[in-house]
Amino acid sequence: MHHTFAAPDGTELAYRVFGEGAPLICLPGGPMLDSAYLDELGGLSAHRRLVRLDLRGTGSSDVPQDPESYRCDRLVEDVEALREHLGLDTVDLLAHSAGANLAALYAARHPQRVGRMALITPSVFAVGIEVTAEMRLLGARRRSHEPWFAGAFAALEAILAGQMTPENWNAIEPFSHGRWDADAQARKAAEDASRNTAAAAGYGAEGAYDPAATRAALDRFDRPVLLLAGKADLGAMPEVVARYAELFQDAELVVQRRAGHFPWRDDPEAFTATVAQFLG
């Protein structure tokens, strides 16, 4: 059962609610993936009421009239409209991957509206942390014992050399998972099928991010922040997430063992214990 509310520009947006307790707004990554892939975040719904937002043009939310409204900085007011719709003075946020860029921009623009914020295997575009090719290759070599490593590493080297073909992007997917098994492969296929490619392209379009301004705002942001990295994740490498944590006044960094980019799938018990404890 999904619920709807109107964005400031009139676009009808949808969200789903799971569990009981204090609300936790959950922002998906992708960018612009249908929020269904978050599921119930490994059982986090046993601890909090998850309010899983379908960003405009994805899932059950309407496609906007203006495709430029997919830009990350413009989506901030959709999140603010959801907070108002829920009747909350402050809200706790959880954001995954590319969704962390949206959460960071929301916290920068509406700091007084955030209670606690959990950034799960976060993207760092909004704050401008540089990740070099050497760092990626070093991180990738941690998986050299895996049966799929040789082909995936060759594809990663090709991408870093500029050969950004769909085949190469598909070939490096195992680096995002603690276990590259049949279940992970099936989930990846389903997510590819649900992606709004126009929305994904617009999310980080020119003008979406102003890293210097965002970093300055987050330096003043005094609410508690959890940054959770997967030890095996190539997308949000632990050493990069550690640098992100340094941007906040009150940040806790957790590196989850045996986890990739989707830590609630790789080890649900460890994930829910960490996040539930942080959220109190």
SSE layout and pairing:
Layout: E1 2-6, E2 12-18, E3 23-27, E4 49-54, H1 72-86, E5 91-96, H2 99-109, E6 114-120, H3 133-140, H4 149-160, H5 166-171, H6 182-194, H7 197-203, H8 211-220, E7 225-230, H9 238-245, E8 251-256, H10 263-266, H11 268-279
Parallel strand pairs: 3-4, 3-5, 5-6, 6-7, 7-8
Antiparallel strand pairs: 1-2, 2-4
Structure description:
The chain is built from eleven helices and eight strands. Helix 1 packs across helix 2 (99-109) and helix 2 (99-109) crosses helix 8. The chain has helices spanning 72-86, 99-109, 133-140, 149-160, 166-171, 182-194, 197-203, 211-220, 238-245, 263-266, 268-279; strands spanning 2-6, 12-18, 23-27, 49-54, 91-96, 114-120, 225-230, 251-256. It has one domain (2-128, 196-279): 3-Layer(aba) Sandwich (Rossmann fold), CATH 3.40.50.1820. The longest helix is centred in the N-terminal third of the chain and has 15 residues, at 72-86. Strands 1-2-4-3-5-6-7-8 form an eight-stranded mixed beta sheet, sandwiched between helices. Strand 5, helix 2 and strand 6 (114-120) form a beta-alpha-beta unit. The protein has 280 residues and is α/β, with parallel strands linked by helices.
